Amino acid sequence: MALIQRIADQSQASDILKISPQAVRLQQATCTAELQQQISAECFATQIDSNFATSARKLSDFKLVAMDMDSTLITIECIDEIADMQGLKAQVSEITEAAMRGELEFQESLTRRVALLKGLDASALQKVYDERLQLSLGADKMLKAIQQAGLKTLLVSGGFTFFTDRMKTRLKLDYTHANVLEIADGKLTGKVVGGIVDADEKQRTVERVCAEMGIATSQAIVMGDGANDLKMMKIAGMSVAFRAKPVVRAQADVALNFVGLDGVLNLLN
C-alpha cells in the first residue's frame, strides 16, 4: 500500500514486516512527535489503525486481560436494548452516550436509566440476550489466543450480572463483576441491588483480581470504550480503547478503531 510505504520512508524504517494478513510492523522507525501526529491523522482518515511502540511487548509479559462488556466485548449496550422493550431506547441511549463521553456521572446515569425500566417483565433480559447480544469483531479469536497462552480473564461491567454470568459460562471467563438488577414478582423494580459498578469500582476490581492472582496491575491488559473505563485503564500495563469515545482514545496506550479486538495480538510478539 502506497501510504504504508510512504510512512516507512518518512520514518526511516529498516523494514516492513508483515505480521498478519491485515497488519504490518515498521521496524526501527524513527518518528518525531510531529510526525507521529501526522501519521496518526493520515491513518485514521484512511481507516487504518496505527500504534507507536518504543519497545517490543510480548503476550507473556501479561497475566490478565480485563474487559468492559457493553460496546467492548459485545456490540450492544444492554440497557439500551432492554429499554427498547419499554419503547424508551432513544431516551436511555441519550443518557448512556452522555455517560460514556464523560459528560454525566456514571452512578447518576445508571440510576436514572434503570428507573425507567420499572415494571418491565424480567423475560425481556433473556430476549435481549437471545436476539440482540453479539460478540464484537475479533473477540473469539482474541480470547482463544490469550486463554491458550495461559492468561486469566476478567469481565468487569457497569452493566448487569444477567449478561456477565452468561458470558462467563459461554466464553469460559475466569472472573466477572457487574450490577445486579432488582426483580420482584417477575418484573424489574427500577432499582439496582447493592453498590453500583462505576469507574472507581472497576479500578478496585482490577486491583483486587490482580492481588488475588499475586501479580502487579502492570501485568494486566485492560480494554474499554467509555469514560467509566479510564480509571481501570490507567493502572494497566497496556490500556486498549476499542471503538471508543474520543476522551478514551486520547488517553489509551492503544486505540483499535477499525480492526477487531484480536488486533491487540498484532502488538504483542
From TrEMBL:
Alphabetized, the UniProt keywords read: Amino-acid biosynthesis, Hydrolase, Magnesium, Metal-binding, Serine biosynthesis
Gene name tied to this protein: serB
Please state the Enzyme Commission number of this protein. 3.1.3.3
Q: What is this protein called?
A: Phosphoserine phosphatase
Q: Name one Pfam family in it.
A: Hydrolase
State the reactions this protein catalyses: O-phospho-D-serine + H2O = D-serine + phosphate; O-phospho-L-serine + H2O = L-serine + phosphate
Q: What class of enzyme is it?
A: hydrolase
- Gene Ontology CC annotations of this record: cytoplasm
